[in-house]
Amino acid sequence: MGSRGSGWVTPENVGLLVDLYELTMADSYLRHGLNQQATFDLFVRELPPNRNFLVCAGLEPVLDYLEGLRFSPETLGYLESLKLFSREFLDYLEKFRFTGDVWAVPEGEVVLPPEPLLELRAPRVEAQIVETFLLNQMNFQTMIASKAARVVLAARGRAVVDFSPRRDHGADAALKAARSSYLAGCVGTSNVLAGQLYGIPVYGTMAHSYVMSFDDELSAFRAFAQDFPQNVVLLIDTYDPIQGAKNAVKVAKELAERGLKVKGVRIDSGDLATLSREVRRILDEAGLHDVKILLSGDLNEHKIEKLLQEGAAVDAFGVGTEMGTSYDAPALGGVYKLVEDERGYRVKLSAGKATLPGRKQIWRLYDDEGTMVRDVLALADEPSPEPEARPLLKPVMRGGERLSPPEPLPRIRERCLRNLERLPEPLKRLERPRDFEYPVRLSPKLEALKARMHRELVRAPAPDPD
Amino acid sequence: MGSRGSGWVTPENVGLLVDLYELTMADSYLRHGLNQQATFDLFVRELPPNRNFLVCAGLEPVLDYLEGLRFSPETLGYLESLKLFSREFLDYLEKFRFTGDVWAVPEGEVVLPPEPLLELRAPRVEAQIVETFLLNQMNFQTMIASKAARVVLAARGRAVVDFSPRRDHGADAALKAARSSYLAGCVGTSNVLAGQLYGIPVYGTMAHSYVMSFDDELSAFRAFAQDFPQNVVLLIDTYDPIQGAKNAVKVAKELAERGLKVKGVRIDSGDLATLSREVRRILDEAGLHDVKILLSGDLNEHKIEKLLQEGAAVDAFGVGTEMGTSYDAPALGGVYKLVEDERGYRVKLSAGKATLPGRKQIWRLYDDEGTMVRDVLALADEPSPEPEARPLLKPVMRGGERLSPPEPLPRIRERCLRNLERLPEPLKRLERPRDFEYPVRLSPKLEALKARMHRELVRAPAPDPD
């Protein structure tokens, strides 16, 4: 317990990152021969507060997990020590390989509830064992990408950098927040590990404490410029941002003599709109038109929108806590529900918890300008509802093997930015649109199937257990 | 990028889980000979919304990190590829060992802002490099422990189980949410990996989908009881909780013939207060007084308080999303600030961002009943303000080595429960007390030092950079 190095999730122990009931259910299914193919949909029932759409993220970590999932002797030893599981089940886990098929909406694509982000077909025991991890990863990463997309939209083409690691919920969150916000259109992150593992550009130069560690601000700026001549972004508000801007000009002139440049200045406090304009004027008067201004300090999409409305002179935003925790909606309620098994289509009826039967396809239709106009949710084996409709769910894994190598993150990011451009105007705004609902229609066949199944279930609702 | 297994934080790469500016600053400090001993306080400036106190958590993972922190050839190769850092700094990192001292409030102890949760003294470069990770871990885990303590208080002695993995922010969050909520008084978690790594009791039996996988509810209950005779907790609300309770009675009678018992039933939807009373009556009428009732379904401390006020018949609560994400206050704003260096005491003045100088001690005073009555924040070298005062900050690491082995988690949990008992009544309530503020006073010496330093800084505020 709590011994050195024991507190990490690793590829070797991640099989145990599972709710206990998944394993008890799986053991029981195995013993009772309930291990036929079953299909599960991972979807979100309704939009979280303050969100107009979702941006899919988390698929790559999920495929990585499914491909690599094994139960090591240590994990099996622990399970055995619980004195809960059958020998048969432990032997099954020892030889475990995920053998199922997965269809998914590519990362960076926009979806609307109740469209499935992912569908998985596998022997029921396998499908059950992977539920917790799939939800843990897809819920969090889709939540962050969806939040980051709002920040990116609010920034109207200006760069956004993830500054969230110190407030993210632990180590994996810091890593995946960097990845999810980058794929949603941010330009990079302060998180060096995300830089190494995902190739995301990393940003950062100095904190106020650095400036305070020197006798005065100008000495600090000079020291930094000397040490990192290619990466001179100066934090100018430790004492007084106007004087800081003048010091930055001084350093820029000194660097210019050596053929080097100040890349930018950062302002982290105060009235950012006013200060940024004054700082811009000081820089411009010194001919430093290409020195960028980066703003930070408890920013979110609303503050960014307001700053731009107030005419802030800004090239980039550093956004931390609010983006990395999805502060105003810090949980996404994605669920994972059985939609088909050896008995045929399956649905749940309960109010607010209803599901749609069967494997599906999401068809998206655009107008002549390329703007999304409506989605049709259909059964997977239906033909395209219109020749131009674009199918969103793609096969990504068959028999436990990926159908293609991991997508490069910049390509996912391009997809997301293209998706954000193609959003209907009301969904691009930060507020919930009042008189607009993006249409997600069921195909006539899915609608009819749903109605028929609901009628049948209502006729024979709960099996009488007596 | 995104290749198999690359998306994990491991003991080998965690050194890079750092904001880039920590490394650029560290490199610059090293080059400019600014590597003397410096002391940093990790503290929270003010209570988050809806919180009356904080419960310390995250120390053990932090000490584990500090002891094990190394920079592997792979991580150094990546840093070199950024073409930012000096050879001197990369060589320094190659030989990196944390050599500093740490004082900390033990996990499970209650603290009030602005009391430091942790103080670290180390060469400035080391202290800088570890900042991001320390904040990432302490902020998150203290936030969860503080939220979980509210849930535990609301449950008034009834058991609380962490059900949060599917909504936690990634893998590390799921693990640490289980640990932090357990140490704050929960009885266990659904998270099997937290069971293995931390020895936390694990809970869970079945989901609605399990019940639906059998022809009828009674068959599902019988199958489960047959497979897990020692762990029969039956989910009774898949169809109708009253009928479910009757089926549970039936299974209990069948088990009784074999000398076995139903341990409990779970209700996950509907009017939990009314249903639980009806279910209790059904169980009691069948003589099943020791079958426990577990309630779950989007619970939080307010709903639990209301359920108990309404007279719910309940032995345990399963709490997920709201506890595991600290939904109503999903970020803790802990900061890490220089309080002393080779030049002496250090403070920051800025409005709302002021710091207190010097290494400190927190002294806590209790009344005759053992209830907390006030804290005194003093300089570390001051004597106890009163003979009975209890010091909260303890030395935990010297020269980079732990001073004692990891504390057993049950002992931390006991400490937390004792702390919760000893809270003043107004802080135990879920609302912010209106006419009560728990006194956190500065010692006369710290008060005088602060006043003197502020006077001096105001007299010579910003060093004139010209």
What strand line-up does the widest sheet of chain A have?
13-12-1-5-3-17-18
Could you name the CATH class of one domain in chain A? Alpha Beta
**Shape, principal axes of CA atoms of chain A:** globular
Separation of the first and last Cα atoms of chain A: 47 Å
- pLDDT averaged over residues of chain A: 95
Q: What does the main sheet of chain A amount to?
A: 7 strands, antiparallel
Extended strand count of chain A: 19
Question: Could you characterize what this model shows?
Answer:
The structure is a homodimer of 466-residue chains. Chain A is an alpha/beta fold. Among the domains of chain A are: 204 residues, Alpha-Beta Barrel (nicotinate phosphoribosyltransferase); 110 residues, Aldolase class I (TIM Barrel, Alpha-Beta Barrel). In chain A, the strands form four sheets. The first copy, chain A, has a seven-stranded antiparallel sheet with strand order 13-12-1-5-3-17-18. Chain A has a six-stranded parallel sheet with strand order 7-6-11-10-9-8. Chain A starts with 19 loop residues before the first helix and ends in a 7-residue tail after the last helix. Chains A and B meet through helix 1, helix 2, helix 3, helix 6 and helix 7 of A and helix 1, helix 2, helix 3, helix 6 and helix 7 of B.
